[in-house]
Amino acid sequence: MLAFAVHNQKLVVKQTPLPKLRNRWALVRVRLAGICNTDVEILRGYHDFRGTPGHEFVGGVVEVRGVSPRVRDRWLGRRVVGEINVACSAYGYRPLCPFCRRGLKTHCERRTVLGIIAHDGAFAECLALPLENLHLVPDSIPDEQAVFVEPLAAACEILDQIDIKKFRSAAVLGDGKLGQLVARVLRTQLPNVVIYGKYEKKLALARRAGMKTKRVLGSAKDMKRIGETYGLVVEATGSPSGLALAQHMTEPRGTLVLKSTFHGAAPVETWPIVVKEITVIGSRCGPFAKAIALLRSGKIDPKPLVTRIFSLAEAGKAIQVAQQSGVMKVLLKA
Fold first, then answer.
1. Which residues, in sequence order, are bridge partners of residue 333?
2. Exposure string over 234-253, b if 16+ CB within 10 A, otherwise e
3. How many separate helices (H) and strands (E) can be counted in the chain?
4. d(C-alpha 229, C-alpha 170), whole Å
5. pTM over 0.85
6. What's the confidence (pLDDT) of residue 263?
7. What digits encode the pLDDT tens for the residues 311-331?
8. Are strands 192-197 and 126-130 parallel, antiparallel or unpaired?
9. Exposure of 326 by Cβ count < 10 A (0-12 exposed, 13-18 middle, 19+ buried)?
10. Fewest 10 Å CB contacts: which of 28, 142, 163, 263?
């Protein structure tokens, strides 16, 4: 099959055998894959990953191994999206690690992560995942929405981590792909959500979805320019500089949720966290069922966030376009 791998900070095309399936695993033919900021950071050295990146996808099940005919019929030919953390149980490890025993599969000590840690991902014609990671996509959700389920689930995770009823408003720092999804999810629960960003075209997308917006410079000058504070701030800039501004904008005894992942260190002072007694929450993967329900309900439509769709063969060009200023979601069509 056609696939792309990371080599010298570039995507390199290769022909590779189809993934071998373990029992209760499925072979999924990728229909659409999304390029995420994490994929860009992988090219820069994040997790020192050398395989096939890509963790946002929608595809069709073409093979299932080690299951009954009834289970096989349930999955074969169906459209699916997939959770990216593959835990102890899927590999048959015994005993399960302490985190899996506590039900925290996304923190499994022996996990692989699709397209990120020791598991080839979605920038290929096919990928392999255990059935326990897969979710069926309702017919009412088109591919161009379904491909957003993984990052939308990451946005929904915030609602599982905090008591949203404690807040009347929220600020989201970052007008990129994840920031836009986070703002849309928060807007389903809060009357006032403000998204801060550098790019007018991106902010216009947020306004059309019902959010208030404010422009930032993306430099140290923002610390002096921005005086408003919020009880809930979500940092999704994808930049090392975002954390300092997020601390500045979080009010005393407020909650700061960190969503950015990037290669390298963030220069930041920690005294504002102590002095203002800020609660800091790291937030990563989230509930797929809630994301699918939001898409099915029509409360969130991420399709306006798609900038371009490339063929899989153009993956190298696509990831370069994805890094250009003002570009939102870039998709690969297999």
1. 32, 311
2. bbbbbbebbbbbbbbbbeee
3. 13, 17
4. 9
5. yes
6. 66
7. 999 999 999 999 998 899 999
8. unpaired
9. exposed
10. 163
